[in-house]
Description:
- The radius of gyration is 27 Å and the shape is globular.
- The two termini are about 50 Å apart.
- By secondary structure, it is α+β, with helices and mostly antiparallel strands.
- Helix 7 (about 365-380) packs across helix 19 (about 715-730), helix 12 (about 485-500) crosses helix 14 and helix 17 runs antiparallel to helix 18.
- It has 19 helices and 36 strands.
- The longest helix is centred in the middle third of the chain and has 22 residues, at about 430-450.
- It has three domains: about 35-80 and about 125-335, putative glycoside hydrolase family protein from bacillus halodurans (Beta-galactosidase, Chain A, domain 5, Distorted Sandwich), CATH 2.70.98; about 360-730, Glycosyltransferase (Alpha/alpha barrel), CATH 1.50.10; about 760-830, no CATH class.
- Strands 1, 2, 3, 4, 5, 6, 7, 8, 9, 10, 11, 14, 15 and 16 form a 14-stranded antiparallel sheet that branches.
Amino acid sequence: MRHLTRRAFLPxxxxxxxxxxxxxxxASHHRENDHDANYTMWFRSPASNWIDALPIGNGRLGxxxxxxxxxxxxxxxxxxxxxxxxxxxxxxxAKSRLAAxxxxxxxxxxxxxxxxxxxEMQGPYGEAYQPLGDMYVTLAHNADGSTEVSExxxxxxxxxxxxxxxxxxxxxxxxxxxxxSYPDNVLVMSIEASEPVTVTVRLDSQLRHTADVSDxxxxxxxxxxxxxxxxYLRTDNPIQYSDEPGKxxxxxxxxRILSKDGKARAANNVLQIDKVRSAYIxxxxxxxxxxxxxxxxxxxxxxxxxxxxxxNKAAAKPLQLLRDRHVAAHQKYFRRVALDLGEHDKMRxxxxxxxxxEKKPDPSLLALYFHFGRYLLISxxxxxxxxxxxxxxxxxxxxxxxxxxxxxxINVQMNYWLAETCNLSEFHQPLFEMLQTLAKxxxxxxxxNYGMPGWASxxxxxxxxxxxxVGEGKGDPTWANFAMSAPxxxxxxxxxxxxxxxxxxxxSQAYPLMKGAAEFCSAWLVSDxxxxxxxxxxxxxxxxxxxxDGKKANVSAGxxxxxxxxxxxFKNCIEASRVLSIDTEWAAHLGHQRDSMIPYAIGKxxxxxxxxxxxxxxxxxxxxxxxxxxxxxxxxxxxxxxxKWMAAGRVSLERRLANGGAYTGWSRAWASNLWxxxxxxxxxxxxxxxHMKVSTAGNFFDTHPSGNGAIxxxxxxxxxxxxxxxxxxxxxxxxxxxxxxxxxxxxNGNVAGLRARGGVTVxxxxxxxxxxKLAMVVQQPGTHxxxxxxxxxxxxxxxxxxxxxxxxxxxxxxxxxxxxxxxxRFVFHA
Length: 830
């Protein structure tokens, strides 16, 4: 992510698949009331700005519901609507500069020259995710024309994925509900009134378009720009259009009003229905997108035919059936996990609770935030859609922040940290599907830019799977030339296998991608001149250092993150080759290279070094914490086998935070996950409190400070949800850790449905910090090592549905042999 000048920022004050565990099922029985406060966010007024609205989505269609009473707005998105088209961003001249940059660093230690050479290796910027448009809905009281609104309430029920607005318009009771159906692929807004009202609908778009209204529908036909320059570039012509087919994507959107009480008609350039007590709006959209690597040349009439067919099918279903199908499709996944951290004051709105969190720390608000994060992933990353981007699927700008792309030096990875632990494994799939095309493009980048095998990708991936470095010769190499996103993305493939045990996935999807990334990394390694292997050029993402002349520099050799990512990828490939019984010699070669790589180092402050040389930090409070990767999200370091490195990592984290780091939402989320891995519940709780105070809008949107106040970034939402999960359950390196970072501020609670590696689902209830109930569902027989908190009583027995499990050891936790798949209940000594 490109650097923004740091500004002071204040929070908005108003603003693998399995059966559900029995504990989670039991919890779901207490959630039937749609107004259950444990799963409902609510507000006393409509959204005044886009960032205050409520997000709904089905992975493909997204809406931001403002909740206005007489005048409402839903900001609309479609996940494939990007500017531009597939282009070759590779730089043929880069290959010839590789030897020069390596000489500048490894022989001459001329880091400033290396920075300049790296800029010469850059290519063009990518394209941007585009807003689809807006739907405006007005409502008028037929009897007396009153516009007086009272008893207003706006809410989002996370359990049903329905945004609802209730109010009185004069003496008329009105309820509006809005949702995006996955099974029917439409946005639905229903309106129920106690007396007849008039409803109008109008569509609009910031993109070039035409609008047509008839008695049956309001239709927008438009085209996305052929160019949308990043918002951080100063340029006279940032948005450019082309009339040539395929140069810019066509799109169509359509809205209809349906009611048993009457029929809609065209009136004054809107679609209107008069004197109805009950009506609903159906909205659908389509684009010319045909794939990441295909020219988006589907014509408008073909797109519109698909939109009409979708609407016709939805219109043939009763409203209640549409709602029921939507809720069932959502709850199938949302209800897998339940979390309760205590009671809260139901009289305060969500925005009020966020604004007052510093004075009234409220664990139950974090439980709601946790559920919101899971809700967002379900709503923005359904199988068959594009992955969640920097804003999920919600964006209202032609030049969105950082083009709303998949920024792959932390941000898109953080989007999926929660997927496996929080039992949403299927929603990882869009990322994996995108990697197929990214690897194809990345193979060209590896060859053209570097003359190397395998595939490589850099820090910025757009809707056409751009894999080459961006920057156009002016970008800071710390972000533009980061060449290690492929191994980082491949870590998600391996994690999915560890959680699901899906050997077919490993063989057909994961391992080929992992091997290709490893082939590039294997060739990328170079001698450091001292008999060891290193990476060069190398950057620690978005951080710079002071060169020997005291001036800032970007590029060096063997940054800690490079070494961590390659060591992890090689290790995973070696293990995958063993599981699949293939590539034995190749695995041995990787093992030899791994053993020959430069080691980690501890610097002058006792910190884990960020660079292979203990450079002076020019920005000790940098928001990126890349050198801590082997602690989290990696797992090379842990308290059991690498306490020395964990301690050094802790010093690095403390230094970052002491110097003002973690001032963005996603950076704070990373810090929270790191504290959880360090087993420090008190610091993790403090970190979560800071996130709510500094980086959370009134509607829970994660924020990034900017010159205009704040912008929305979804990675902090996902990363913080992950951190809460990590505080309650960890399962890396062969141990299942129960409540590993439980803060004293959460003395009582329960969680059901979290997932551990090895195909284990875990339900936990604790009281005064001690476990009182523990149950596990295992997918297959096997042995697991389980670490319980020191405050818990010893386990007496483990009773299963198909027989008892055997405790085979009580050393460093308990070693448990589960004889068969099924659910097991732990019985504790009194």
